[in-house]
Write a structure and sequence with these properties.
2 strands, globular
Length: 245
C-alpha cells in the first residue's frame, strides 16, 4: 500500500494542473463569471458529460452559446424555452431529447427561483458529501426526472459526485471550491465510472466488478488513507495511473 500511495501521490501532483482543463468538461465553469453562474454552468456540464468527449463537449458549448455565457440567467428567467423546445421527438444528445433537457431546465429553474442558487439549496439540505448527493437526487426525482439525474443513491451517481468535487474542493487549479465552507472535502465521494473502477481494482484498492454507491464510498475511504486531508486528489491520481499503465 505504501508504494501504491507514493505512486498515486505522484500522479495527483502531475495531473491536477491547469493543463488538465482544456480537454475536461470542468473547463466550462472557468469560462463564465459569477459564482451562481459557475454553479449552474458546472451542473449542466456535469449532466451532459457522458459518452465521447468529442460529442458532449460541443453540446455543452451549445448551451453556453444559447445563454450568452450566463447560464444562470438563461435558466432562472426561463429563456431556455426560446432555444430548447418541449419536444420528445427531437434528439439533443444521445438518449436526451429536447423534452428531456426542457424538463431538467424547468426543474432547475424552480430550484433557482425558490432557493436563489444551487449552492443555497445544497447548504440547506446537506451536511456532507453523501447527503449532498442525496439531496440533489431527491430533488430531481421529486420533479419526475430520472434519465439525467439518478433517482436515488443506489448507483454510483458519477456525474453528481463529479459536480460536487468541482464545487467543494478548494486550493485546486481545476475545482472551484465554492462550497468548501459548508461541505467538508474529506467527505466527498469519488466520481466512479467503469474506468475508475477498473484502475482501482488493478491497484488492489477495491475488489468489485460493478460500480455502485457503496463501492464508491469504499474506494473513497481507501483514498483517504493515502490523501487524508483531501481524498479526491485520488481522482486525478487514478486518471494519471490509467494514462500511464
Amino acid at each position: 500500500m505504501e508504494n501504491i500511495g507514493l505512486l498515486l501521490k505522484q500522479y495527483a501532483e502531475q495531473y491536477e494542473t491547469a493543463e488538465f482543463l482544456p480537454d475536461d468538461p470542468s473547463r466550462f465553469m472557468h469560462q463564465v463569471e459569477g459564482n451562481d453562474n459557475r454553479e449552474v454552468t458546472a451542473f449542466v456540464a456535469s449532466c451532459l458529460s457522458y459518452g465521447s468527449r468529442k460529442q458532449f463537449m460541443p453540446k455543452i458549448q451549445t448551451i453556453l452559446d444559447f445563454a450568452g455565457g450566463n447560464v444562470f440567467d438563461w435558466i432562472a428567467h426561463g429563456n431556455f424555452k426560446n432555444n430548447i423546445p418541449n419536444d420528445d421527438t427531437i434528439c439533443f444528445y444521445r438518449l436526451y431529447t429536447q423534452h428531456t433537457m426542457y424538463t431538467l431546465f424547468t426543474a432547475l429553474q424552480e430550484m433557482l427561483n425558490c432557493y436563489g442558487s444551487i449552492g443555497r439549496y445544497v447548504k440547506k439540505n446537506a451536511s456532507d458529501g453523501f447527503t449532498a448527493v442525496k439531496c440533489l437526487t431527491d430533488y430531481f426525482a421529486s420533479k419526475g426526472i430520472e434519465t439525467i439525474i439518478p433517482k436515488n443513491t443506489a448507483s454510483a451517481c458519477k456525474r453528481v459526485c463529479m459536480f460536487l468535487r468541482w464545487m467543494v474542493r478548494d486550493n485546486s487549479p481545476v475545482d472551484l471550491g465554492l462550497w468548501s465552507s459548508f461541505i467538508d472535502k474529506r467527505t466527498l465521494i469519488i466520481p466512479m465510472d467503469t474506468h475508475v473502477l477498473q484502475e482501482a481494482n488493478r491497484l488492489g484498492l477495491i475488489n468489485s466488478k460493478t460500480a455502485s454507491m457503496s463501492v464508491a464510498i469504499k474506494l473513497s475511504h481507501r483514498l483517504s488513507e493515502i490523501f487524508p486531508d483531501d481524498p479526491m486528489k485520488g481522482d486525478f491520481a487514478l486518471f494519471g495511473y490509467g494514462v500511464n499503465h
